[in-house]
Amino acid sequence: MKNKLLLLIVIALSVSSFAQEKEVSVEKSIFGVQAGLFGIWGYNEVKLSNTISLRTELGINMGIWGGTSYPKTGYILFPTVSVEPRYYYNLNRRAKLNKKTANNNGNFFSLKTNFNPNLFTISNYNNSYVHNHITVIPKWGLRRSFAKNFEYEFSAGIGYVYDFEMNKGGTGLDLGFRVGYRF
After folding, report:
1. Count of domains in the chain?
2. Rounded Cα–Cα distance for residues 36 and 84 (Å)
């Protein structure tokens, strides 16, 4: 009787241990570069919890202008620094559907804080500059990997922009599509 009871306990424990799901989590740390229509950025994304990461980013943004008021189409390149906590809300669902979750493949909500300092500019117009400004934009986005180390991201959000030179704020739109490489 004792042997049968012991056998049942061992079987029950082994079955329950196989039934437990693997814990899904964001990566401990990811480094990479990304390029989009209006810039290039280097980033690091660090794990804060199983579903939250902190992304820091340095890059060069680009602006374009033109029209009949200008003799030629203008462009400007300027530096940018951002900090963005991200909450990956569908990692467990993706894992249950046998979809990739490695390298933070998933959908996310974030709060992107971006500072554009007037440190330097590169432009085809003389004396072009960018006002020091900051943006705080809640965003929704998704990240997917392809090939071995490549990825793409799409994100969209509406938030607040504050211009330090004009001492004035307003509404800002952030739409992004980036393709990148992870190291």
Report:
1. 1
2. 18
The structure tokens listed for 102 are: 């490695």
Convert 123-142 into a string of H (helix), E (strand) and C (coil): ECCCCCCCCCEEEEEEEEEE
Q: Are 10 and 18 in contact (CB under 8 A)?
A: no
Query: Rounded to an integer, what distance in angstroms lies between the CA atom of residue 134 and that of residue 20?
Result: 45
Please tell me the total number of residues recorded for the chain in this structure.
183
Distance set, CA 51 to CA 15, 23, 62, 110, 168 (Å): 28, 11, 32, 12, 35
Q: Which residues pair with 64 in a beta bridge?
A: 75
Position 1 confidence tier, pLDDT thresholds 50, 70, 90: low
Mean pLDDT of 162-180: 96
Judge whether 20 lies within some domain: no
CATH number of the domain residue 78 falls in: 2.40.160
- Can you read off the two tokens belonging to residue 88? 């990956």
Supply 27's token pair.
């990566």
pTM of the model: 0.83
pLDDT range class, residue 16, cuts 50, 70, 90: very low
H/E run at residue 92: helix 91-96
For tokens 């060069």, what's the residue?
A: 60
- Residue 134 inside a domain? The answer is yes
- Tell me which H or E stretch contains 14: helix 2-19
Taking residue 110's Cβ as centre, other Cβ atoms within 10 Å add up to 21
